[in-house]
Design the sequence.
């Protein structure tokens, strides 16, 4: 990633990496500093609770990150997916409009599948093509979900 990427753009890249649909609140955490999008308004027009400082216009460069530094991205406060990110270098030049995954393994957890504990407990036992009418199967997982699957070419098509 280039240091000039905004947290808003990084959020969109992470959503694409996990094939999530941006249906939930999220925030980035840098040590004790938390950054989130401006809170949405409720039905009465009042702002909902702020999860962190407004990240509009904030870039990674503003944190003076060094190689090996870590920060996190938390998505879906109910499921609480926490993605730990480690700086292993920055790309020179302007922010790209297309990104590329270099390596990976296993399928990304589906949106709304219950969070890490639920996913880790149930996903390994789901056979490919399970019958959603079986009493033990789970609605949280698509019927064709294969937790071992990872297609880097398909992921890079989605990121393009």
Sequence:
């Amino acid at each position: 990633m280039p240091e000039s990427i905004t947290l808003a753009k990084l959020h969109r890249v992470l959503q694409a990496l996990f094939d999530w649909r941006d249906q939930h609140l999220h925030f980035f955490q840098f040590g004790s500093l938390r950054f989130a999008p401006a809170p949405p308004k409720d039905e009465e027009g009042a702002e909902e609770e702020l999860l962190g400082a407004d990240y509009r216009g904030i870039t990674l460069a503003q944190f003076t990150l060094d190689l090996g530094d870590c920060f996190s991205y938390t998505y879906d406060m109910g499921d609480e997916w926490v993605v730990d990110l480690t700086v292993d270098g920055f790309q020179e030049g302007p922010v790209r409009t297309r990104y590329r995954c270099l390596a990976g393994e296993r399928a990304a957890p589906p949106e709304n599948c219950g969070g890490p504990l639920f996913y880790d407990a149930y996903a390994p036992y789901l056979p490919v093509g399970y019958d959603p009418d079986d009493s033990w199967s789970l609605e949280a997982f698509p019927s064709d979900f294969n937790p071992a699957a990872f297609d880097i070419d398909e992921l890079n098509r989605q990121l393009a």
The mean pLDDT is 85. The CA atoms of residues 2 and 91 lie 4 Å apart. Helices lie at 7-18, 116-122, 152-159.
